[in-house]
Each structure stands twice: as structure tokens, then as C-alpha cells.
Design goal:
The chain has about 130 residues and is α+β, with helices and mostly antiparallel strands. It is built from 3 helices and 4 strands, in the order H-H-E-E-E-H-E. Helix content is about 55%, strand content about 15%. Strands 1, 2, 3 and 4 form a 4-stranded antiparallel beta sheet that branches. The radius of gyration is 21 Å and the shape is rod-shaped.
Length: about 130
């Protein structure tokens, strides 16, 4: 009876470990796939927020940043304000980063770096 009791925690750990690793791997994979699309969506929101006439005023730049930030906030992502630029042709460049919560990866040094991703994107104005 004593031997059976000592095996129960080990057995539970051996069952739970692969499940937790799979859940963490799925969360990281979804984040890595979603952030580039979310960054493009935030950039499009910034481009569409302003009426571009050759030179963006500080007010227009703030409007574009706020629109991009609103989209990023809905995806729980962060836009680096220093990276946010509007080019002469009206394109918006921004850097979006996201950290995903994990159960095991955050405690394993070799996998900890996978829980954070950063993407820089440029979204051009429509030519029409």
C-alpha cells in the first residue's frame, strides 16, 4: 500500500507534464502566428486614421498612433512609441511586441525566450 501511495504523485506528474508542455507549445505557436497579422492590422488602422496630404502634423501622427494602439490593445499587444513613424508617402511603420503566459516555458531557461515575440511592419497607403 505504501509503494502505491508513493507512485501516485510521480504518475500524476508524468501524465500532466506532456499535457502542460503541449498547451504551452500551442500558446507560443498561436502567438507567433498571430502577432504579424495583428501588427499589420494595427498599421492599417494608423494609416486609415489620417487624411494624408504630404506631411503629417503632430496631431495627425497622434491620431494614427492612437488608432494603432487601440487595435494593439484589443489583442493585448504593445506598440513601441519610439518605433512609430509615418513616412513621406503616408505609410506607417511600427513595432509590436507580445508576451504570452505559459505554465512551464517561463520556468525553463532554454524555452523562456519563446514566450515573447516582436514584429516590425510597414503598412503603405492604398494607391487608389
Amino acid at each position: 500500500m505504501q509503494a502505491l501511495r508513493s507512485r501516485v504523485p510521480v504518475t500524476l506528474a508524468l501524465i500532466a507534464l506532456p499535457i502542460l508542455l503541449a498547451a504551452d507549445a500551442g500558446a507560443v505557436t498561436l502567438m507567433k502566428l498571430a502577432v504579424p497579422d495583428d501588427a499589420d492590422e494595427a498599421g492599417r488602422a494608423g494609416v486609415q486614421a489620417i487624411m494624408f496630404n504630404g506631411v503629417a502634423t503632430p496631431e495627425e501622427a497622434q491620431l494614427a498612433f492612437d488608432a494603432s494602439k487601440a487595435v494593439a490593445d484589443t489583442h493585448r499587444e504593445h506598440i513601441d512609441p519610439a518605433s512609430f513613424t509615418i513616412t513621406q508617402d503616408g505609410a506607417v511603420t511600427l513595432t509590436v511586441s507580445k508576451h504570452t503566459g505559459t505554465v512551464l516555458f517561463k520556468h525553463l531557461p532554454i524555452l523562456k525566450g519563446l514566450t515573447h515575440t516582436t514584429v516590425t511592419t510597414t503598412v503603405a497607403r492604398a494607391s487608389w
